[in-house]
């Protein structure tokens, strides 16, 4: 690796006004994250134990790979750039969140629907829509595949639950998320679905496209530095909950879709893969997925 990080980003900085850029989506994700109050009750003893292990891991890697001063300085420069581009939410959620999600799942004995990572593009308080409504979406300027996404939200025994909600958000057919790319209506493809009294939902949306990590920022540079690919498979994001029940944050994928086997964010699980079928009469894809909620611990 000879080029410095800053040189590598110049193309991105020259992007046209109104175009989706690493800096635009990164800083929007950082601004959104900063609106959430975050805290943890970590004691000094626990903090010390974690830092000791962290620095021991650094020491092992530095010695094992004989890290050079040039590499150390590129790292420093890269870390600074990740902050400048607002890409910490992106980089962390792509490369770290899946292990946090797994560890927190494995500490419990849950048997409801599996979770997956939240990612950097969630917005709370999306508009409520009826159980059988259409997702808020802009007029499509080219052909898209409509998707009828339906199923039930129940407890572990299959009973409907009072007050259940299904928050759904996903990228459009360009792989772009509203509020993180320019020129997209505020709540495009974001809604809070309210299931009916039988726990049923059946909404109309569109098939999302795979998501490409922006190539013009430091996360894109990081991926190129190891000859990796920057793709996530097409996916739906969900938060499903009801009073007294565990909130499930998850994602659903599409069988046979590109990148399902090699998600850059390592967030695909076999239980989370949909297999929609085309309804020849309507031309819509249709799929059924049921959510089962564990009780709150
Ligand atoms: C996404 O759409 C996403 O879901 C994650 C986890 C990371 C980057 C983009
Ligand atoms: Fe996503």
Ligand set: 3-methylcatechol, fe (iii) ion
CATH architecture of the domain at 105-293: Sandwich
Strand residue percentage: 15-25%
CATH topology of the domain at 105-293: Protocatechuate 3,4-Dioxygenase, subunit A
The CATH homologous superfamily of the domain at 105-293 is named Aromatic compound dioxygenase
Cofactor: Fe(3+)
Family: Belongs to the intradiol ring-cleavage dioxygenase family.
Keywords: Dioxygenase, Iron, Metal-binding, Oxidoreductase
Domain Intradiol ring-cleavage dioxygenases: 149-177
Describe the protein's architecture and organization.
With about 300 residues, this protein is an alpha/beta fold. The protein has a domain at about 105-295: Protocatechuate 3,4-Dioxygenase, subunit A (Sandwich). The chain has 8 helices and 13 strands. The strands form 3 sheets. The chain has a 6-stranded mixed β-sheet, with no helix packed on it. Strands 2, 5, 11, 12 and 13 form a 5-stranded mixed β-sheet that branches. The radius of gyration is 21 Å and the shape is globular. It starts with a helix and ends with a strand. The structure holds 3-methylcatechol and fe (iii) ion. Fe (iii) ion (FE) binds near residues 121 and 237. Its EC number is 1.13.11.1. It is an enzyme of class 1 (oxidoreductase). Belongs to the intradiol ring-cleavage dioxygenase family. This is Catechol 1,2-dioxygenase. InterPro entries: 1_2-CTD_multi_dom, Catechol_dOase_N, Cchol_dOase_actb, Intradiol_dOase_C, Intradiol_dOase_core, Intradiol_RC_Dioxygenase.
